[in-house]
């Protein structure tokens, strides 16, 4: 029987788990976390959905900013799109979309990410996965307010860029070279009241966004559950598209007047197009008195035409991207005894 050589050094102990994990492992662990995956997937979903419906998005804004007596775009949707194409071409369809994507990527990312954060940290730890419709509505409303607060200056600049090249006679002769996003923001800051100019119209925006986002998330998750076949965890791609279209249509129809108020206040001090509304009640009174109740729903037709493909593509691309990121989570290695 051999005597063990006690003079030879013992093999070194295995490194602790934190040292065995490389940077790639840490990256995949981080990006696959549900809230972070939702944040990243939300940004992708926003860019995809807005680019798909950019012409209708711009047309909606042109309809919204017209008051009584302004009829440059008092046309049907098809004729207005043809007018835009003849006067500005493909660039007219995409006017403001670059700014819109710069805005919508962080906006959508914060919205989806904060919704998952609020849901997990304020509701699910008490109620498990069985969130009530009211809980989903509340989470969505909180997410909407959070995303608007972070990205509102980009939204108001996008509105200005969307109408600067349109043929409104009140705006006078169009400049040969239109200003860009940062130039427009700088001019607003210097000439229209500083930092507050970049948040003009945020009150009606928040008043409309909170219920809109809440209704959107609540309706989507309800429709998603309804369209999931028994024995399956997820609906088909077509079911997700249908659920997204339904959620957008319900939310937009219920909250559309707030969107009109937001656009009007965003150009309240713009030369040639200003309406000089004193407050939200004053704006509602003037619009209804001069334009009737229809004035509160101007632009809703192109808006509803865009909301189905927009929200359908948004939710589908969000789920695909989120599921892919979550699937990157590394498997836990068994600890050595």
UniProtKB/TrEMBL annotation:
Residues 9-18 have a biased composition (Pro residues). Keywords: Calcium, Membrane, Metal-binding, Mitochondrion, Mitochondrion inner membrane, Repeat, Transmembrane, Transmembrane helix, Transport. It is found in: Mitochondrion inner membrane. One of its GO terms (biological process) is transmembrane transport. Pfam families: Mito_carr. It is a multi-pass membrane protein. Gene3D superfamilies: Mitochondrial carrier domain (1.50.40.10). Residues 1-24 are annotated as: Disordered. One of its GO terms (cellular component) is mitochondrial inner membrane. Solcar repeats lie at residues 33-121, 131-226, 235-324. It comes from the Eukaryota. Mitochondrial transporter that mediates uptake of thiamine pyrophosphate (ThPP) into mitochondria. This is Mitochondrial thiamine pyrophosphate carrier 1.
């Amino acid at each position: 029987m051999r005597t063990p050589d006690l003079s030879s050094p013992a093999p070194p102990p295995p490194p602790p788990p934190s040292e065995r994990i490389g940077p790639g492992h840490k990256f995949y662990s981080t990006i696959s976390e549900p809230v972070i995956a939702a944040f990243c997937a939300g940004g992708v979903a926003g860019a995809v959905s807005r680019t798909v419906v950019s012409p209708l998005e711009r047309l909606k804004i042109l309809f919204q900013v017209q008051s009584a007596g302004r009829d440059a775009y008092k046309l049907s949707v098809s004729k207005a799109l043809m007018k835009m194409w003849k006067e500005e071409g493909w660039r007219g369809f995409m006017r403001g979309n670059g700014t819109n994507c710069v805005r919508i990527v962080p906006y959508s990312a914060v919205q989806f990410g904060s919704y998952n954060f609020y849901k997990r940290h304020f509701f699910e730890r008490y109620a498990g996965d069985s969130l009530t419709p009211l809980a989903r509505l509340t989470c969505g409303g909180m997410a909407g307010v959070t995303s608007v607060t972070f990205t509102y200056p980009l939204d108001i600049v996008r509105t200005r860029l969307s109408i600067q090249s349109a043929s409104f006679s009140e705006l006078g002769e169009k400049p040969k070279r239109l200003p860009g996003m940062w130039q427009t923001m700088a001019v607003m800051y210097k000439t229209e009241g500083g930092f507050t100019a970049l948040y003009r119209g945020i009150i009606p925006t928040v008043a409309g966004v909170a219920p809109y986002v809440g209704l959107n998330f609540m309706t989507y998750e309800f429709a998603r559950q309804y369209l999931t076949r028994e024995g399956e965890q997820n609906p088909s791609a077509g079911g997700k598209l249908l659920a997204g279209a339904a959620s957008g249509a319900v939310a937009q129809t219920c909250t559309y007047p707030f969107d009109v108020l937001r656009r009007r206040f965003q150009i309240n001090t713009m030369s040639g197009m200003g309406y000089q509304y004193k407050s939200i009640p004053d704006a509602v009174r003037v619009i209804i008195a001069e334009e009737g109740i229809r004035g509160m729903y101007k632009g809703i037709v192109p808006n509803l035409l865009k909301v189905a493909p927009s929200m359908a593509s948004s939710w589908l691309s969000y789920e695909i991207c989120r599921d892919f990121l979550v699937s990157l989570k590394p498997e836990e290695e068994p600890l050595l005894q």
